[in-house]
Amino acid sequence: MTATSAKLAINGGEKSVTADPGDMFTWPIVTNEDEGAVLDVLRRGAMSGTEISKQFEREYADWLGAKYALAYCNGTASLHAAMWACGVGAGDEIICPSITYWASAAAAQSLGAAVNFADIDPGSLCIDPADIEHRIGSRTKAIVVVHYAGHPCDMDAIMPIARKHKIKVIEDASHAHGSLYKGKMCGNLGDIAGMSMMSGKSFAAGELGLMTTNDRELYERCIAFGHYERTGAASNYNAPDAQITLPYLQKFSGVPIGGYKHRANQLCTAMARVQLKHYPARIAEIDKAMKRFWSLLEGAPGLRPQYPKWENSSMGGWYACRGLYDAKQLGGLPCVRFCEAVCAEGVPMCNAGANKPLHLHPVFHEADLFNQGQPTCLAFGQRDVRQKAGSLPVSERIAQIAFGIPWFKHDRADIIAQYAQAYRKVAENAGELL
Ligand SMILES: *Cc1c(COP(=O)(O)O)cnc(C)c1O
């Protein structure tokens, strides 16, 4: 693409994007096949059963190469269960990156645990492996890692820290269905993974979540916590299904420990089975489109992809994809202002930042879930791991270092070129905004 000197649209120039995007951004892709699968469940009244969910679990686990999978009513519940399965309890701590959706961390509170937030790496937007070990204390039970916006975490740096301190690694794979880390699938890299499959995610199946693991005890603990229908006792909708072999859990058969019900609605797992069949081909198309977009931006000042630096690694379905911004190369132009100008070129999804830092949110500082008269993060005798503004500098600068890019679902050269041109034009004419 050639350098441009056209007047920016925000200053009254022509917009870069004029084409109708059509179904470029439509997601999930739903066909007669999804409709047929869902209608079949509806007509059979099979919403509360588990036979379709079990088929989906087997198929997804096989795709990942994992031994066990368990379907959940949503991703939040799968992460809650994963934490409990890993032994997170009252007075304990978990470590989690500050830049993520709240569900990566918030369930710790309902277990009486505190969250010690870690900073992110500015190149990957994932947890910074160098900011983990010094946070581990005698009550730390787990590290939650989030493959952020599809970018795999540096597991080869993280797992040895966890092994050394005998704590578990929980992957939040909600952004990373199909992402590869050095040839291995995200969601099968730690001790256990929880993930969302709600409608907005890359793997989208309504309101659905999934837990995956290779550890039989963690699997059984997840069943005992929220899947009473698989503990051996018969229920109205399901034949007896005894998945629990550990005696200390077996005796609770029929009633979930803690009173949680995590079963998935089979309208969603039926759709998920169809989505999975087409998912590898669909994300391959997304990957081509996104790489085309970034290749068109090669050499544009101040802009670079959030992309893994390792061999055989990928962004999966490029969920909530971001670009990385370097204001210095644009004469100090603030990222927010850059984004306003790109939006004006006809790219409404160009917003500054990503998720807001969680370590500053009052719910992690003050909320008193158990009515104990003090914040839950302290009420069970924890160390005070609450962090003030200034403590996680990269996370706190997220709106200055990252920006939204279009999430193309099809590799259509003419349309992608217009969107890339919008970013290039603003980057190359940043002087007009200074
Ligand atoms: C969406 C999301 C979740 C929560 O999943 P739900 O299915 O919405 O409950 C958890 N973690 C991350 C990182 C997410 O983006």
What's the gist of this structure?
This protein is an alpha/beta fold and 434 residues long.
Characterization of the model:
By secondary structure, the chain is α/β, with parallel strands linked by helices. It folds into two domains: 9-28 and 278-354 and 396-433, Aspartate Aminotransferase, domain 1; 32-273, Aspartate Aminotransferase, domain 2 (3-Layer(aba) Sandwich), CATH 3.40.640.10. The protein is built from 14 helices and twelve strands. The protein has helices spanning 32-44, 51-64, 75-85, 107-110, 155-164, 216-226, 247-250, 266-296, 335-344, 363-366, 376-379, 393-396, 398-401, 413-428, and strands at 68-72, 93-97, 114-118, 140-146, 168-172, 180-181, 184-185, 192-196, 209-213, 303-305, 322-325, 402-404. The strands form three sheets. A seven-stranded mixed beta sheet has the order 1-9-8-5-4-2-3, sandwiched between helices. Helix 1 runs antiparallel to helix 8 (266-296) and helix 2 runs parallel beside helix 8. The chain is globular and about 75 Å long. The two termini are 24 Å apart. 52% of the residues are buried. The model has no long low-confidence stretch (mean pLDDT 97). Pyridoxal-5'-phosphate is lined by residues 74-76, 100-101, 103-104, 146, 172, 174-175, 196, 198, 209.
CATH topology of the largest domain: Aspartate Aminotransferase, domain 2
**Cα-based radius of gyration, to the nearest Å:** 23 Å
Tell me the CATH superfamily of the largest domain. Answer: Type I PLP-dependent aspartate aminotransferase-like (Major domain)
Which molecules are bound in this entry?
pyridoxal-5'-phosphate
Helical content stands at: 25-40%
